Amino acid sequence: METYSQIRVIGEGSFGRAVLVQCRNTQEKYVLKEIQLPKNQSKLQSSRREAVLLSRMKHPNIVAFREAFEGDGLLCIVMEYCGGGDLLQRIQQQQKSSQFTVENILKWFAQMCAGAKHIHDKRVLHRDLKSKNIFLTDDSSVKLGDFGSACVLNSSKAYAQAYVGTPYYVAPEIWDNKPYNNKSDVWSLGCVLYELCTLQHPFQASSWKSLILKVCRGAYPPLPNHLPYELHYLIKHMFKTNPKDRPSVRTILTSHRVSRLLRSHL
Ligand code: ADP
Ligand code: MG
Fold it and tell me: 145-174, pLDDT tens digit by residue?
């Protein structure tokens, strides 16, 4: 901890906490995420997975890993600080004024897809994509963060522990006890895109049971008519209830009807 001085705590959760720190040598700011290490050996491995998987990523739309170290029963992950906060806060702020512009929606969505494509290309699944885990930089680009639920594709973990994530963003196949796959991340990204378009969750209900029913039917309130055809088209395809019918992020960015439009916003 001597390398860094603490500025303030910016997030607290079940894992431990996220602290904004400053490097004493360079004066650069970082986020230091402290995770309480369990004593149990197999749980220990899964706690370390977050640092290992984040360290494998290197992309402008993914929070950059700096280093990780352990001491006093804590795992510390030092990463890039995104000064614009998380996208959920940004959406809540926007609810007080007006909708995001189409330009803005397309830019952020294209950046999220670019980040997600990098993750999937490395055969990793994020498994907890949601507006709260997407961060904004000072110059208003977005970066995917929080690899605390991530896993390697086709690993036994992807099967064993199917339900991770936050209920609003969970794909129908997960409620159906099928393994998590790359298209489940696409579903979650669709939920974030819908949130950007309407400032509301696509699937909302007063009970778990009715939420799950809506998700499994793929029943969401239609997007407002003023939004361009491409956004209607994307949402419709990302919310296909059968994961096989959903495009991959690669397809969205390279060979989908909307790819050219998206790439022009990158
Ligand atoms: P958790 O496992 O508790 O969800 P996160 O990694 O999502 O942990 O961090 C918790 C909160 O801390 C985030 O929602 C965000 O508000 C803040 N935070 C985490 N990492 C960063 C970062 N790199 N830049 C800015 N804020 C961050
Ligand atoms: Mg989080």
Answer: 999 999 998 766 555 555 566 789 999 999
The CATH number for 256's domain is 1.10.510.10
State if residue 130 touches ligand 1 by the CB under 6 angstroms criterion: no
Residue bearing the CA closest to ligand 1, atom 14: 132
Nearest Cα residue to 170 out of 135, 136, 208? 208
30 backbone dihedrals φ, ψ, rounded to 5°: -140, 170
**Do the interacting molecules here have an ipTM over 0.90?**
yes
Q: Which CATH number do you get for residue 36?
A: 3.30.200.20
The total of structural domains in the chain comes to: 2
The CB of 195 under 6 Å from ligand 1? The reply is no
Report pTM.
Answer: 0.94
Domain that holds residue 131: 85-265
Per-residue pLDDT tens over the stretch 66-110: 999 999 899 999 999 999 999 999 999 999 999 999 999 999 999
CB 34 within 8 A of CB 12: no
Point out the ligand nearest to the CA of residue 50: 1
